[in-house]
Specification:
The chain has 152 residues and is an all-alpha fold. It has five helices and no strands. The radius of gyration is 23 Å and the shape is elongated.
Length: 152
């Protein structure tokens, strides 16, 4: 039973992480895209905009690589579990411990590569509370305009 689940889950994650690796390879051209513009000012502006995006995609590629390797290992373990191999029982416990360590590693990568790059560039996540035009209550979804409409 666990062998079948290991094979199914590892196959799904293997497919997703392989697509993530392909996407990372395709987006690796972002780092040098600004050099193709002949105007120096526009090239500098484009590089300033694309450098954080390239950093995010590198982080996603690193996460995809980790998930790909863990999925390949889980697929091998699942095949061993189906064949009732003693090593598969031991390795499934090792894989579980490594999986927990990988979760921590993926969080660190996401925090440093993805979230850290938006903080360094000064960009913020969009929120109606931070937008000066919406803070006056002009947004139909803002709580202040909602309370004003219901109290009337």
């Amino acid at each position: 039973m666990f062998g079948v689940l290991s094979i199914i889950f590892s196959s799904v994650v293997l497919l997703g992480s392989a697509l993530g690796l392909l996407g990372t390879l395709a987006s690796s051209a972002l780092a040098g895209a600004g050099n193709m513009v002949p105007d120096a000012d526009k090239a500098a502006e484009l590089n300033a905009m694309l450098a954080p995006m390239a950093r995010v995609y590198q982080g996603l590629g690193l996460e995809s690589l980790i998930l790909f390797l863990m999925s390949v290992l889980l697929l091998a373990i699942g095949i061993g579990q189906l064949r009732y191999r003693a090593w598969a029982r031991r390795w499934s416990v090792y894989w579980a411990v490594a999986g927990l360590a990988c979760v921590v590693l993926l969080v660190v990568i996401s925090w440093t590569r993805c979230l850290g790059s938006s903080r360094r560039t000064g960009s913020r996540c969009p929120s109606w509370a931070r937008c000066p035009a919406w803070s006056a209550g002009s947004s139909p979804s803002s709580p202040s305009s909602f309370t004003r409409r219901t109290r009337r």
